[in-house]
Amino acid sequence: MRNNILAKEKKLINNNDDSLYKKLSLRYKYILEYYLNTVVDFKKYENEIDNSNLYIGKNSRYKSLNEYLNLDYIFLINNLFIEKLSDDNLELLKNSFNKDNLSIELVEMVKNTYQDVIRDNYLNGEYYDKIYNVCYGEFVPTNFVSNNSLVFKIYYGKNLKELFKGDFIKLHQDQLKFFRKIISDIKNEIMVKLNVQCEILLEKDIYE
How much is the pTM? Predict the structure, then answer.
C-alpha cells in the first residue's frame, strides 16, 4: 500500500487530494519508460510477435498504459512510490513540466532512483528490506511477483484480421511456447543490461 503518511508530509497529497501525486507519478513513469527504451530494444520483441504467424492480435484496451514506450503488447505496470524521492528530486520532477525535452539531469535522477521507487516495501507502517511477493492484478498465483521487481505485462488478443482454420488447442500451446521464449529473452536482456530483478506477466484478452 502506498505510504500516504510520507506523501502527505511531502505535500504530495493535500486534504486527500492526490491529483499532484498522480500527475508526478505519470511524469516519473514517462521518464522511466524513456530511460528503459534507451537500454532495451523492446520494439525488436514486438516485431517478433507481429511476425510470429501465430494469429496474435493487438490489445488496444491497454494502449494508454504506455506513455513513452509506445508499444502494442509490452507494458510497464509497476506501482511507483514517488514519495520516497528526496525533496530535491521531487522539485526536479515538478519543474520538468515546464520543459519540452527531458534533461540529462532528469533522466539520471530517474535512472538512479527507480529501483527504490518501484520497491513495494512499505507494510504496516514500516519500510522493510526483506523480499516478499506482491500481487499485480487479479488475486491469482501467476500475478504474484517479488516486491523489488521491474514488472511488465504482455497483453494480447485475437488477430481479428485473419481467420484461423485449424487446431485451436495446438495454436494456444504454440502461442504459450512462443511467449515463454519472448519473456525469457526480455528478462535475460534486462538482467544483463540493468542488473535488476524483472518479472513479465502474460494476459490474453478473452473478450477480443
Answer: 0.89
